[in-house]
Structures are given as structure tokens and as C-alpha cells.
Design goal:
This protein is α/β, with parallel strands linked by helices. Helices cover 45% and strands 13% of the residues. The protein has nine helices and seven strands; from the N terminus they run H-H-H-E-E-H-E-H-E-H-E-H-E-H-E-H. Strand 1 and strand 2 form a beta hairpin.
Length: 207
């Protein structure tokens, strides 16, 4: 792709680094921004800079937050005896949109994937185990995607928690195998949470 401007080329290159954005899509977005009032583009740039410099991660659940403790963890109406374990922030948003879950969350920050070089030490697993041992949690819901990596992570956590006095459950398989939670419709995801099953049952079903 030939560019008439180095400034345009640099902007397109940076835009194309975003997931799902190729060079042509990046060019279309950059040209669109050029057509907008300078003040609007400035607000976008300022919002991104502020996001990057001021965003925090909840010290309890690792969710994105404006404060040290996110709004969910700080809400006294939430049931702090039930924790839903998810891969990333998008899953928290997806489950919250169902309005069916009133407990707390724990964001792992990924899934165990030896192929990608991601092991347990790269995830927020130690803080989860510490939370289970010190915060009076009665149930953990494994809400990772129904993929090989998700199942591997679930099983790893299950083995780590075997000696703890806690219920471990997983989403009912209303969520299609191989799908990410963020792509499940709200009704299906909500029912999967409400109809969750003991994790041991999912092991028997897969054996």
C-alpha cells in the first residue's frame, strides 16, 4: 500500500495494530478521523491517553476500575460468598449484562495455554487461592470458555482447590463448545449461570 504522506502511513500502521483491524480498515478509520472536527479527534486522543495513564485494576478481583476497588467488589449488596472465575474483563461485562449473577468475580487474565507459553504463573491464580482461603468463599463458578484451554484451566484450578472446603461448579453447557463467553447471547449465558452444575459432573461427562 502506497501512501502520499508519512504521517498518514504512521497513523494507519498504529491503527492496524488493533485486533481485527487490517491495513485497509485502518486506512478507512484514519481517513474518517481526518474528516471529523479537530476537537472531536482531540477528545478521542485525550480519552485514550487518560485511559492508559489513569486506569486501575481492582485489587480484589483484577477487573478494570477507576478506583482501587471496583464498583462490583465495593457493592455491599453483592453476595461475597460466591465468586465467578472468568478469563478477562469482557466476560465480566457479558455476565453482568444477563442480570442473573449477584456474586463477585475473579479475573484470571487469560487461560493456561502451553502452545502460547502461558502457564499458571502468568495468571491471577495465586490471588484466587488466597481469596478462597481467607475470605469465606463458599462457591467458585468456573466460567471460562468451553475450549481446550478453558477446560485445562478449570481442571488445574479444581485440582488446586480439592483440599479446600468449597463448592466448585461450572456453567451448564448452554454455551456452545469452542465459543467465547462474550459471544453468547444474554439469555443463554444467564441460563447457563442459573443452571450451573458441579464441576465433578463435567469431568464425568467428558471422560
Amino acid at each position: 500500500m502506497e501512501f502520499s504522506s508519512k504521517l498518514l502511513e504512521n497513523a494507519v500502521y498504529e491503527m492496524s495494530q488493533l485486533p481485527g483491524i487490517g491495513k485497509r480498515s485502518a486506512l478507512r478509520l484514519v481517513l474518517h478521523l481526518l474528516k471529523q472536527p479537530e476537537a472531536q479527534t482531540g477528545r478521542l486522543a485525550e480519552a485514550l491517553n487518560t485511559l492508559r495513564s489513569q486506569i486501575k485494576f481492582c485489587k480484589s478481583c483484577h477487573n478494570i476500575s477507576d478506583l482501587d476497588l471496583c464498583e462490583i467488589c465495593a457493592n455491599p449488596a453483592r453476595d461475597n460468598s460466591i465468586v465467578c472465575v472468568v478469563e478477562d474483563i469482557r466476560d465480566v461485562m457479558a455476565i453482568e449484562n444477563t442480570a442473573q449473577f449477584k456474586g463477585l468475580y475473579h479475573v484470571l487474565g487469560g487461560k493456561i495455554s502451553p502452545v502460547e507459553g502461558i502457564g499458571p504463573q502468568h495468571l491471577n491464580i495465586d490471588s484466587l487461592l488466597e481469596k478462597v482461603r481467607s475470605c469465606g468463599i463458599k462457591e467458585l463458578i468456573f466460567a471460562l470458555s468451553a475450549t481446550m484451554e478453558g477446560d485445562t484451566t478449570n481442571f488445574y484450578l479444581y485440582k488446586k482447590l480439592q483440599d479446600e472446603d468449597i463448592i466448585t461448579s461450572t456453567l451448564a453447557r448452554g454455551v456452545p463448545v469452542g465459543d467465547e463467553l462474550e459471544y453468547a447471547d444474554e439469555v443463554t449465558l444467564g441460563r447457563s449461570i442459573l443452571n450451573r452444575i458441579p464441576f465433578e459432573n463435567s469431568l464425568k461427562a467428558n471422560s
